[in-house]
Amino acid sequence: MAGQADQLNTPGSGRGLLDVYGDRFLLKLLVRKEIKVRYRGSVLGLLWSYVKPLVQFLIYYVALGIFLNLQRGTPNYAIYLFAGIVLVNFFTESLSNATRSIVDNRDLIRKIYLPRELFPVATVWVSAAHFFPQLVVLVGACLLVGWTPTVFQLLAIILVFLMVAVLATGLGLLFGAMNVYFRDSENIVDMIVMVVTWASPVLYVWSMVERVMGPWFWVYQLNPMTVAVEVFHWSFWEPTLNTDQAVAQAIPPDLFGLWLPVAMIITLGILFLGQLTFRRLAVHFAQEL
Fold first, then answer.
1. What's the Rg (C-alpha) of the chain?
2. Residues 255, 230: contact at Cβ < 8 Å?
3. Considering the entire predicted model, what is its pTM?
4. CA–CA dist 264, 259 (Å, integer)
5. Under the phi-then-psi rule, with left for phi > 0, alpha for psi from -120 to 50, and beta for the rest, what region is 11?
6. Distance (Å) of CA 33 to CA 27, 38, 39, 171, 175
7. In degrees rounded to 5, what are phi and psi of residue 155?
8. pLDDT tens-place string over residues 57-113
9. Which ranges does the record mark as transmembrane (predicted)?
10. Exposure check for the chain: N or C terminus, fewer CB within 10 A?
C-alpha cells in the first residue's frame, strides 16, 4: 500500500506539455472530435479550408491589388498576398480556438482529469489540418509561375510553420487559462486577430513600413508574425521573381542573421510564460467552470 501511495499524484499536477506527448493517443482522439464537431451537419466539410481563404484572398486582391493598384509595384502580387494569408490564417485560427478550448470542453474537464494542455494543443493541430490544404494550393500556384526554391527555402518553410505553431500554442495556453476566469480574454484575442493581418506585411511590402517608421523599424520587426511572414515570402514569393531589383527587395536586412533568431527567442519566451500561467491556473479549472 505504501508503494502505491508513493505513486499517487496531487490532483491537477503534471508535467505540462510533456504530458501531452505522453498522451498522444488522447490528443489524436481530441483532434478527431474537434474536426467532427466543427463540421457536423456541414455539406462542404473540410472543403471550407479552401473556400474561406479563397474568398478572403479575392477580397484583398480586388480591393488592394486592383483598386489601390498595389500589384503594379509588387510583381506576382497574388503569390505574395496568398503566402501571407495562409500563414496568418493558421495563426489566428489556432489562437482563437485555443483561447476557447478550455471553456468549450468544460463538461469533459469537470468529469475526468486529463492533461488540460491537451485541449489548446489539439486546436492547433486542427488548424494545421486546415493549413495544409491551403499550402498545397499555394505550392501549385507558385509552380505555375516558375517557383524554384532552394533547399534552405524549403527548410525555412518548415521552421517558420513550427515557430508559428509554438507561438499560437504559447498564446493559446495563456489566454485559454485566463479565459476561464476572465471572459474578457476572448475579446482581447479578437482584437489581436483583427490587428495581426495588418501588423504583418501580408497586404503590403515591408519597405513601405520602413519608409514611414525609419529608425523605429526595429519595433515592427519585434513581432514574431512579421518575421514569419517575411520568411514565407522569401521562401514562396522570392523564387518567382525575375528581376534582380525585385529579388533584392524581397526581404528586409538582417532577416536571418538577427530577426529570425530574435523571433524564435520571443516565441519560446511566450511559450514559457503561457505554460507557467496555464499550470498555475489549471488547478481550479473544474471549480471555476
1. 21
2. yes
3. 0.90
4. 9
5. beta
6. 10, 8, 10, 22, 22
7. -65, -35
8. 888 888 888 887 877 778 889 999 999 999 999 999 999 999 999 888 888 888 877
9. 50-70, 77-98, 118-147, 154-182, 188-206, 256-274
10. N
